[in-house]
Amino acid sequence: MTGREAAKSVLRAQKIELPSWAFGNSGTRFKVFAQQGVPRDPFEKIADAARVHAHTGVAPSIALHIPWDAVDDYAVLGRAAADVGIKLGTINANVFQDDDYKLGSVTNPDPAVRRKALDHLFACVDVMDRTGSRDLKLWFSDGTNYPGQDDIRARQDRLAEALSAVYERLSADQRLILEYKLFEPAFYTTDVPDWGTSYAHCLKLGERAKVCVDTGHHAPGTNIEFIVAFLLREGKLGAFDFNSRFYADDDLIVGAADPFQLFRILFEVVNAGGLAADSDIAFMLDQCHNIEPKIPGQIRSVMNVQEATAKALLVDTEALGAAQAAGDVLGANGVLMDAYNTDVRPLLAELREEMGVDPDPMGAYARSGYAEQITGDRVGGRQAGWGA
Amino acid sequence: MTGREAAKSVLRAQKIELPSWAFGNSGTRFKVFAQQGVPRDPFEKIADAARVHAHTGVAPSIALHIPWDAVDDYAVLGRAAADVGIKLGTINANVFQDDDYKLGSVTNPDPAVRRKALDHLFACVDVMDRTGSRDLKLWFSDGTNYPGQDDIRARQDRLAEALSAVYERLSADQRLILEYKLFEPAFYTTDVPDWGTSYAHCLKLGERAKVCVDTGHHAPGTNIEFIVAFLLREGKLGAFDFNSRFYADDDLIVGAADPFQLFRILFEVVNAGGLAADSDIAFMLDQCHNIEPKIPGQIRSVMNVQEATAKALLVDTEALGAAQAAGDVLGANGVLMDAYNTDVRPLLAELREEMGVDPDPMGAYARSGYAEQITGDRVGGRQAGWGA
Amino acid sequence: MTGREAAKSVLRAQKIELPSWAFGNSGTRFKVFAQQGVPRDPFEKIADAARVHAHTGVAPSIALHIPWDAVDDYAVLGRAAADVGIKLGTINANVFQDDDYKLGSVTNPDPAVRRKALDHLFACVDVMDRTGSRDLKLWFSDGTNYPGQDDIRARQDRLAEALSAVYERLSADQRLILEYKLFEPAFYTTDVPDWGTSYAHCLKLGERAKVCVDTGHHAPGTNIEFIVAFLLREGKLGAFDFNSRFYADDDLIVGAADPFQLFRILFEVVNAGGLAADSDIAFMLDQCHNIEPKIPGQIRSVMNVQEATAKALLVDTEALGAAQAAGDVLGANGVLMDAYNTDVRPLLAELREEMGVDPDPMGAYARSGYAEQITGDRVGGRQAGWGA
Amino acid sequence: MTGREAAKSVLRAQKIELPSWAFGNSGTRFKVFAQQGVPRDPFEKIADAARVHAHTGVAPSIALHIPWDAVDDYAVLGRAAADVGIKLGTINANVFQDDDYKLGSVTNPDPAVRRKALDHLFACVDVMDRTGSRDLKLWFSDGTNYPGQDDIRARQDRLAEALSAVYERLSADQRLILEYKLFEPAFYTTDVPDWGTSYAHCLKLGERAKVCVDTGHHAPGTNIEFIVAFLLREGKLGAFDFNSRFYADDDLIVGAADPFQLFRILFEVVNAGGLAADSDIAFMLDQCHNIEPKIPGQIRSVMNVQEATAKALLVDTEALGAAQAAGDVLGANGVLMDAYNTDVRPLLAELREEMGVDPDPMGAYARSGYAEQITGDRVGGRQAGWGA
């Protein structure tokens, strides 16, 4: 099998999970711009996600956010997904949108609030039991805005206690994925601000606790691929939340801000077997299409991950290893750049045709009439947004 | 007059303008936490601002945000302010909260949207004519999220055209104050991202166009006091928007994150005569009290500016100049630090007593019962928030 | 002429100036690693620069650093350059490597040091008169390390005075190019820290004073292409110092850290006519090949600029403009990305063959035996390094 | 015992270690400015360190850097230190200043270079055996400058192997302290870039492997006190390298850039018992006095740590805890700020007098004539600098 064919073989099996919330309205603290035709409930989000999968062939599941996507009967939701060819994926817990959480959820100084937050996390595991989801993804907005506001160590104690209780609650085939984020919405301390904090907690929890790397959640200048490589070496990389940023957690389309960085990240993944058949890394998008249409925004995102992956797969690792061993700085860099500079769009078009998908997903979606259809259909009701 | 008395003399005349929006609810894109007793209209905001002035003695005006604070009759609003001992101050234009502004206001590629935005700016000048406000503060959220989305230069052309039209519309005693901001809500380009851009536009507009320095609107590592000193030297510093930040535009209480930086900024102001009787620099707060109570948050902010100012006034400039001229690095730094390390709270308590204000503004407010009163009174109606 | 041919036409005329100091040893404050065969005098630097031009065809001049490259007779130096097919280019003044400059050069509190620095700048203009150089590039390391160390405004006064004196000294066909840099070696204030400062000074000096954008000299998160577009619009962009960085002023090979950023910068240049025949923008490299061999490092750098330029030239500006005007965010971004994702290496290989240059400059240099030759020849004497 | 007396009791026992290299010349890659009277050998560095201790009373040991401070007989060196009232402290290994280390030391792709580096580390433990030093501090400049240059994971394997070998070599009362640093001199990857990496390695090594927090080694926006609190909670904080910075690793006088941050860090230390009698945290300075005189620079640094410590000790922890538990954001912040805003210089002057030290260390040193003496004495020979 040539490198090209080997690359296609991996690309054919690649799976990228879509976030249900990407299809709803989103924005900044200054304004949420409403778009036409956005979903009004989880079922419509599933329909939109299925369109992304239909046009790309590699996005066969949708992550849910609880309570945004809470329904009475998850079996019904699961069947709705199955009907359009996708699955329910990761369950994302939301303990940041209740007035009680003003000073934190599981790390709140008030035990009653902590209890409430923990109960919600348990409820999320209940949902997992019903949806058959493997992963519980935890992101805590918890932190403080002012020095002295709360005790940094005490908050870690509370965090450890909550994580431990949740981990205990999981069944043997379920995992806890702990996300970290430098800042926002907390502006002085964040209780899980970096990969080291997430890693240290996961280590204590056990085998099935792993770190989630959100590509937009780092301090300026952080080398993300180093973190990815380090966590892969430790067997502690659980999931990616893909997006991109120029400044802070901008939640732009993955690969839009720094496509070379995305390539370097995926090269570390490929290099460590992270795309192998037995890999348990979850590859998810986590983005906000504030000003661009949502479905094409997701399609473009999936394509960007595919393109970066394809380039990563084309690296001549033998030549690279030889140059590295020889201390040939420019030679080794040149091998990597040769792959990056390759135009992989023809390869991916070919792959799509082999998979029975239109080689031009953006064009195919535009021509499909789906955008016009949902704009016409989804009138009345309350559009889904963050919190809706 | 001793240094201490001279300092008090300046501090007695200091004026810090309060932003009407600081009294309403605010938050992040993740959640706006509602507080009890927040104002439901501009009149209630004025009442709250007057309380801050009553407890500090140095906050005698309130900045308005249009349309948030739009009323039918500004004479009525002005009288309401006068009745409680304060004035209406700077008019802040808001061209970022309408769905039409999704791709920009005055720099929007669509001429109809630009026209709408410009009309709003003209309407703001109409308000100024009625309130007697000197300053029109312009902050544009305009920018782009993705490379290629729009033409950077063309947007500058549109910006220049709008600024020029507004400047023409001003009367001879009115000023245009142009704010800059690195990013947010735009995540790739911002049309006025830095002081240089604002300065260049103001230079072309004329004498009465000046730059506004918001202390939270810079890239990491930016030396803000350098910018302040530079603009003062050029006669182009029009106003401050005071707040503080650890990460991005966190809009925390001024001085809360880096009190030494606030001191250095105010030292440059003092040093350049920016607190002299004939200075026309507007000193405003621009903050969001997301998790702390709003009125005490404003009182603390005013006190922080006072403390930093007091320290700046206590610098032994003669000794400083001598050490600087001698190239005595540690000596010169030591002179500055001597002032910074001084506990100026007794001096300010003394000043307050002389001004007939309680020496402990935070305590006095807590004891006043005002918080309990507004919590009881302001029930029903719609609480004012960003956009309310 | 097709887009491809039009692009080649511009690429054929492109000129990238090489810095003499890139061929000497360089390093960090921790260690300068010596390489074999590095030049021992300006003549050997010229020989190396000529090799880069021989292999690329677009690097026909060398920038000098005074006093590093000072010689008794510049006519002799000029002839040496002409003999190997290149020209002497920009003169870079160095007022940062004398013990007298510990607290600054032209902004030093000591007038005697200022005088010495100014004399050196005059001497650089003398050199220009003899080399026929058009541009005097000024980078001042001047600044302070500690708050209070010196007066920020007074240093601006001194800076303005020195710049004015130098500008007066220039003849009508000579230009002053003022570089800015956020920090290093000064760690608190830098006297020309950002483009705004450089722009403001240049504006006062006159037509022939322009700003130099060094791509590594910005705060994290700065949008460099915005600055480039803004300065081009103002007619104040004088020169580029190309390099790349992940963290601070890393001085890596241009395009190595963020090739997409380099493409966006060059797109703004192309878009504003900056590569037109009548453009007077100087495109220079300014890098330190600390661990990689110098000559191949320069060849790769030139190639990277070429590749980014080629992609910028391939943007379908008509389609882009249409998408921008229509507010089609994803469409406009897609047009830009289509050009970026194109593999332009075949186009450039073709161009090189047409220009009589080997299509594979890196390989051609490796095969040339030049590296072995200089390693053998340049033994003894003092290797050129920063300051040598 | 009042809070004031309790504070003095801790301050009396505080110990701050001085770095031998702070007394030698240092600088940036652009220039090392030579100062008069700097030491020419380790004995003269010891003499200078002893002066700092004489004037402050709390700096009774000196850290050595090997090979910079290598001598034939460490017993002689130890006696020289004892003679002037101080001890030899931490041994700092230097594997970054040999041409062999261009591509790394213990992570170099070449096994021979790794062996050489490891041998040096073993030699450092030999030195410890002779000096009686408890701590081996390891900072590796290892990393890469270009993507692809070397394999990130393989370098971690090599690092782990070297650390393990060194840890094995230590005796039961010796510790390995692993420092991390974001970047410089490596500009793409650093092999130990953050606390998480250091922590993960230390965890595997064992009890006596701990993390060193250098306050200048973080990405912009990093909350250092969070890291300190986290490591203290884990029992993994081994040492501080104190300095301060505005931009990158500026190595300025500790507390000079952000005294409030230093206070917050020390508050976490105090809060976690890090200054208790049984604490094994090493408090060291690690600075470069590039433009200021070295001995006064060290005295000022020690004083700055003392002042921040004194303020941290004055926090009313009972009131703080009560406000935190009540969710009183402004109240809790106010308690912390009350301590920070206190002028502790009188307290420290009093303490010094009680300890038999001049209450004004800077003045006392200036009056002592020591500066003039060493300037006169230390003529000829080679001044100690980085690498000397």
UniProtKB/TrEMBL annotation, chains A, B, C, D:
Gene3D superfamilies per record: Divalent-metal-dependent TIM barrel enzymes
Annotated GO biological process: L-lyxose metabolic process; rhamnose catabolic process
Keyword terms, alphabetized: Isomerase, Manganese, Metal-binding
A GO term, aspect molecular function: L-rhamnose isomerase activity
Top-level EC class: isomerase
The keyword Ribonucleoprotein appears for this protein: no
InterPro entries: L-rhamnose_isomerase, Rhamnose_iso-rel, Xyl_isomerase-like_sf
EC nos: 5.3.1.14
Keyword Lyase: no
NCBIfam families from the UniProt entry: RhaI_grampos
PANTHER family per the UniProt record, alphabetical: L-RHAMNOSE ISOMERASE
Protein name as catalogued: L-rhamnose isomerase
Organism: Actinacidiphila oryziradicis
Gene: rhaI
